[in-house]
Predict the structure.
Amino acid sequence: MTRWRRFERQGAAMEYWEIRQEGIRCFLRWGSDRTSGKASTTILDDEEQARRHAVRKVDDRLRKGFTEVEPRCDPAEAEAGTPVLELVSRAAGPHAPVPEFLPVDGFDQVFRCARTPDHPRGFFEYYVLREQGRSAVRFAVRAGSHQDAVVAGFLDFLCSRRDLAFAGRSHRKVALPDPVGPFGHALFCSPALGRAGAGHPATAARVATAFPVFDCEIGDEDPEVLVDARIHGHASLPFSDWGRQPHPAVDMRFDVQPSLYRPSPKFKAFRPADLQKLMDALPTAAPQSWLEVRSFRGATTRLRPDTTVSFADVWSFLI
């Protein structure tokens, strides 16, 4: 993980601006000594684009009169030796109950916390520890779809592969030796991609994510930017719901005019509802309009205004 760079400008108030690039992501934080700070994350297609984006942002700050200064102490560095669960427990709000992580019987260095399990949106949170508790792989299961036997099957698989999410790649889709509930595959995400530690800056680079998926939900050759969109964007998987139906990857590029959608020359992740609306608009669109859909296998199908194919046919192609 690269370090933050900090820039300051003195005016009526002392303004600060910070940036950090990690892989395909650029993280920003900014504010002043009179206001609360803000933050944003920009995700680019590849690391070189992210590097150029960071350079442009820094040049823009320098042109506006900011001066680079020594960054303040990063919580991730200050707490590098503190066990993950201790940091998560310590981060509870002043009026929130301190989470209680209990060992899971039959599994070494695996802990579970029940988060309001009787509430409709309650869930169970699991941490599979490594490095004497200084890092972990996390996953969560909605209480309504939680079954001890199903989770135990996933833990059997995960505990023998707990290092996989830290092995240098952003993600891996791995076939399960035996089904876990309805799922046949597991997705391992690096800490940056999984964002499991997003609420706890001191653990952000030390907590990875893993959860079961259907084969059609993540392509074997998907770049990180598409996987990020699938699990965090507007087309995101409800990956904590282990009772869900398949949510196949819906990657599209198109130019359908007129329609409610701006042309998208590159493949991006969309929702099934977006596909349906574009297909509904296509028969009456301009003759040069087109829509291309890509499945998780990498196969594509191209639709034009005169194409006679149903949504059900395209859905079958995606699954």
Notes: The two ends are 36 Å apart (CA to CA). The domain at 5-72 is CATH 2.20.140.10 (q64v53_bacfr protein fold). The helical segments are 47-63, 75-78, 84-90, 148-159, 191-194, 224-232, 272-281, 311-318. The mean pLDDT is 93.
